[in-house]
Amino acid sequence: MFASLVLLTLLPAVFGQSWQQYLAGLVQTLNTDGLTTLASASAALNNSNNGQQLAQSLSTGNWTLFAPNNQAFSSSPVNLTSNATSVLDLLSYHVVSGNFTDQTSPYPNITLGRTLLNDSSLVWLEGNESQVLAWSNGSDGLFVLNNGTTVPVVNKTTYQNIQVLVINSVLQIPQNLSDTLANSTYDVTSVAGGLSSINIPTTNSTLLDVLNNAHGITIFAPNNTAIASANCISGLLPNNTALIALFGNHIINGTTVYSPGFTNGNNYTSASGEPFAFKTNSSGVYVSSAGSNWARIMRSDVLTSNGVVHVIDSVLLDTKVNVSAAVSAYQSATSVAASTTIETGPVGVTPTTFAGH
Ligand SMILES: *[C@@H]1O[C@H](CO)[C@@H](O)[C@H](O)[C@H]1NC(C)=O
Ligand SMILES: *[C@@H]1O[C@H](CO)[C@@H](O)[C@H](O)[C@H]1NC(C)=O
Ligand SMILES: *[C@@H]1O[C@H](CO)[C@@H](O)[C@H](O)[C@H]1NC(C)=O
Ligand SMILES: *[C@@H]1O[C@H](CO)[C@@H](O)[C@H](O)[C@H]1NC(C)=O
Ligand SMILES: *[C@@H]1O[C@H](CO)[C@@H](O)[C@H](O)[C@H]1NC(C)=O
Ligand SMILES: *[C@@H]1O[C@H](CO)[C@@H](O)[C@H](O)[C@H]1NC(C)=O
Ligand SMILES: *[C@@H]1O[C@H](CO)[C@@H](O)[C@H](O)[C@H]1NC(C)=O
Ligand SMILES: *[C@@H]1O[C@H](CO)[C@@H](O)[C@H](O)[C@H]1NC(C)=O
Ligand SMILES: *[C@@H]1O[C@H](CO)[C@@H](O)[C@H](O)[C@H]1NC(C)=O
Ligand SMILES: *[C@@H]1O[C@H](CO)[C@@H](O)[C@H](O)[C@H]1NC(C)=O
Ligand SMILES: *[C@@H]1O[C@H](CO)[C@@H](O)[C@H](O)[C@H]1NC(C)=O
Ligand SMILES: *[C@@H]1O[C@H](CO)[C@@H](O)[C@H](O)[C@H]1NC(C)=O
């Protein structure tokens, strides 16, 4: 007992030396590659406990660093000297666990990796998982999907166990769900309006409030044209129960399912208790709810602080409800989330969720 206490007090000093050397080497590599702004932000990791922990994490395992160049920082509103916590959060979001050199699928497939961003004021995924980053491999090389835009990888280098992918924008940490839906970039503002006008009985909250507060949520959001042309919605309008059922069939409750999960081997159950199905053909990937019409997924993997939104081109015409299936899917999602381990490779490729079984 006494011996192990002595060891515990000695260990940090020993680790300290090695990770400090490691960090100094990283800073030097970044400087050599002209990434001087990122280099000084990285050097500043030494100045806080959380920063030191980040440097220590990097020093073992395999990592991919999406490294904004100087031009990226100079055109970003981020002030790297103002708030140490938010700078650390931002840097954490640019670091992905794993080496994806041979593990990035060609576009239109999207690869997602788990970042180091886990600040609970910015991330509310199921099982307290860290936020993800999404990218792909296009005809002109790798690019990150961020904030409705594509950010190309402009250069590459390595430092020990880190694959450094240089980008010319600072990536934006995913926003909360209601801000994301309300953002015209994604063409789903009608869904934001719809969800905020649906009241949940016996509570004083709207469906949007419920979704905003969820830990792990997947939403198939019909785009504005789709909502405008769905006759069924005006038909249901006075009937709150039917609207909750309809929108519930666009939602997976308690599980964040990214596009690699859109395969028929995965059985996902909607928040209304209906089974989702997926199909892929030459024109794209499609989703349906319990044999409803097929909706095409127009834009996948719009990340939010608590889950993901996939924009679809039509409303899923299904107002059926199966309460017990919904409850058991949520319970199963909760227990899966509690036992999830941190991915060091592509997220969502091997099914880890069996909601609905
Ligand atoms: C890092 O990746 C190499 C292959 O590139 C692998 O052999 C090794 O086990 C990985 N290390 C960790 C800690 O995942
Ligand atoms: C960044 O923040 C620091 C500290 O709050 C402040 O002194 C500096 O003027 C800010 N820089 C810019 C460009 O706003
Ligand atoms: C710094 O940023 C964090 C996270 O963004 C925020 O919670 C905190 O209030 C900020 N601190 C100051 C002093 O502005
Ligand atoms: C691309 O995604 C589709 C649909 O999810 C899947 O069927 C296919 O296997 C994926 N291809 C690769 C190379 O990962
Ligand atoms: C995000 O996208 C919006 C709309 O395209 C744009 O106005 C905004 O500047 C972008 N924000 C960042 C941080 O890139
Ligand atoms: C790309 O990175 C290499 C070092 O890895 C550097 O020598 C070169 O100048 C960089 N190119 C550009 C365009 O930044
Ligand atoms: C990443 O993996 C590739 C191929 O497996 C390997 O060549 C490269 O050295 C690895 N990079 C790092 C930084 O470990
Ligand atoms: C859209 O998102 C971007 C970045 O996330 C933000 O700068 C912009 O203000 C948002 N627009 C609205 C209307 O919220
Ligand atoms: C319901 O919410 C409204 C608006 O936030 C508030 O004014 C009202 O007092 C709340 N009612 C109850 C019963 O909580
Ligand atoms: C509202 O919709 C529910 C579910 O679709 C249905 O059972 C109920 O009869 C409807 N109520 C009215 C007043 O139409
Ligand atoms: C998700 O399930 C929980 C627990 O059953 C429930 O409280 C919540 O309202 C559900 N959310 C949705 C959107 O159905
Ligand atoms: C929105 O959906 C309509 C069909 O309802 C489709 O024609 C259109 O291309 C979609 N818009 C975008 C931006 O994907």
From TrEMBL:
The keyword Signal applies. It comes from the Eukaryota. Keywords: Signal. SUPFAM superfamilies: FAS1 domain. The keyword Signal applies. Coiled coil: none annotated. Residues 1-171, 182-316 form the FAS1 domain. One of its GO terms (biological process) is macroautophagy. SMART domains: FAS1. PANTHER family: FI19380P1, PERIOSTIN-RELATED. This is FAS1 domain-containing protein. It comes from Suillus plorans.
